[in-house]
């Protein structure tokens, strides 16, 4: 057995050994054919009390602990148990540190008992973290076998298993309990989640499909209620693709609203497109809770990249006021490059009708061609010709998954982008942003409110969750990274093989469109969640959370 | 005569022909030996009324116009006249558009008369602009002969002499009157101001010395009161060096606080170090006026790079409150690389004693070595091996000044920085910023206030104004660009040959230090202005304007 295989296997064994024996699922896990959806299936291994605790949202959890109704310890144990089960069903964890979490929870309970108050706004809340965060006591492999026993691939830094990322420090200070790090794809650059440790993270709603990526472990874990809220990063859709695929919520803030420094990443220092850090959760209030709490910790005093923008209650209130009158949403049914599959097209229409039922207005969104943004972003990911990711692969000689070979080849390219070429791409990006902003402003002439469009809606992807190996188009999420707009994802419906049939009049825009269209199979996709994105201007997180909440509630009503 | 020479000469003739004959200085301009300081000398060519108008600050000007006491037209004419005289004395203008300015002023007067109110907060205020701004009707050469008749070196874009930069649009909307574009050095990358149009911009306080750069024309023009306020850009000190050299005020905001998009620049798309746009003025209230007015125009809705941070009155007020108690300032006498000349060292002591007289506290500022920041910034300016600037030179084949050859050679380098090398420099920059922030936070343990240091002080340069061809060290200004801190410059004193004698115990840190030290000559520098920088955290412009005001007033008192 190749050295990397045994190293990977050894690490996986060590991690899995941290699951208490009584939490192991007895017998064989049923196949995807036998048990497609495991979101309900998981309940049989939990007590009624554990189900009660794990099936409310983060806002309710902290309220129950703060009122003294629940103890941090029992909450932590319940989520540890459910996360362990989730991992056995869909392979969503990289690192497990239940013991440290339970000890932290006990300390929080002691604090609460002694002081009669909580440590902070997240007191006792279990929070899961994508395996880019550094947490003391555990590895940060980011899915690379060669990173075992190192700090981001470097030996003898004195930092591995000791150093913690800035946001980890803040989360602890706010009272959160950290207990798992979740799976992601090799290199981070994929809408699926796979690596030589966990293999493949499946979609818990439909195990024939992908859990999305790169924050796929977060998506799957939260969908299974193994975590009430977690954090991922997003440079091309990496919190939005998994939220969408797994039927949960997320918000991708504008870059540098939340502290991303000190996280492991790929191609660190590429700064044409800046990644964002954002929460994934089972409700919108849960996202507001963590977002607001983190900003209250003044991250700009500790991460030099974070912009000094506290949570703006006034923007939240102003948006609620605005919503009492008529709002105008732009709607983009498709981006002119790849046609959304039938369930996705239906989700857009559900949202449109919810908007109209509320008395708000939907107008067509016809911005500068998104394909230009896709090119700018793909360029940025290619600057170094794959040198950085191949350096990490070569530390162990591990297998490179075909999805990654498609983007970065078998080895690094001989030449890299030059400074002048990179600068030209930066200028293109800035000019595109400006054109987009001008377009947005120009909608003031068609809304009838005197204001430009308040927010706009587009599919989260052309498919619901993707079929393994077939995440062939990222344009629907990439756009928001290029223009750096705040973007929320809300679940809308699920694919229904009887309703979502292929439109016979379909005509392909191009070869990729045809390829993506051909991947639709009503039978295979049946039951997969479908979401939309709600996009606001840069740094309008407070506003977009309100608008997402309004649409989320309205969709619920139309569904009934 | 070479083609570029005749083109340059022709353009200069056309520009100078726009100066009314009656505004030409009769006879010969006296030599620097005969008339070192022309700041008072210029008055003889002005009426008493013109002197009254041009020697108050921008805040008083708009107040006088808004009250109806002054007309926009007479204010504009007075500044046009004085700017024309200034240009004849120190060569500080690239473009003149007095006629358009006077027509604009007349329209403003009409508006005021008809509506009984001002158009905006800058109604009737003449504002000068560095020749990176695009203004309709005039060239934007940025000092390149080859850019004549083009848009940033490109032909047939349809934009030249038509397109206006975003901030120009906003200034007009706020009621400002635009009338001149000011000189800058070829490439922008110099602390002196020279090019094949204007030759050299001299320091009006001491024409043996440089006016600074790259916003040297702004510095000289404002020192001569040919403008009450103007705008420059700063990527390594380009508003601070000229403000310091010319005895005026400036603030370099953090990047992307004010809209810089659509300005001509060098190496556009280099985004390791982002340039800032900032005002230069004859008072701090003048800077606050334009800063606040521009933010009221919500530039983030028009420039996608601008952060959504309105002017924060609460931060201004909070700082004023804080100042009623004890403030603590860090003081950095030197950066350990280059020793400040005697007048500069004396200026620091004047500020220290002002701080202490006010009952505030001064502590030693000992941050991470500034030389590391200097290296990061110099790297960023070298990424393309000079290709961009040499492309602009080669459009005309014009003479490249020796100061530029020192940095960019006779021709572009054969190789550029690779994507990986640039990414590594970006990571170094981010890590340095983080270390600096950690250091700043750590000062909470020594201030005695429980807070970290409120702001810190350092020289604006090792010299007062530099001697031509001898601007040999930029470290004192570069630091604030690397950490992206808000930095104000306030004038403190003037060099005095009887007081500012070389310290006999001087020991060189290194060869550059020796070279800079050797350039000090008490006789030559006599009368040159000396300034200090006051540095705040990122985006703390409101706070730093208050602290600068407090120190500025206190220095005045100690000077009396």
UniProtKB/TrEMBL annotation, chains A, B:
GO MF term list: amidase activity
Q: Which reaction does it catalyse?
A: a monocarboxylic acid amide + H2O = a monocarboxylate + NH4(+)
Keywords, sorted A to Z:
Hydrolase
Q: Which domain of life is it from?
A: Eukaryota
Q: Which Pfam families would you find in this protein's record?
A: Amidase
Active-site residue list: 130 (charge relay system), 214 (charge relay system), 238 (acyl-ester intermediate)
Output this protein's name.
Answer: amidase
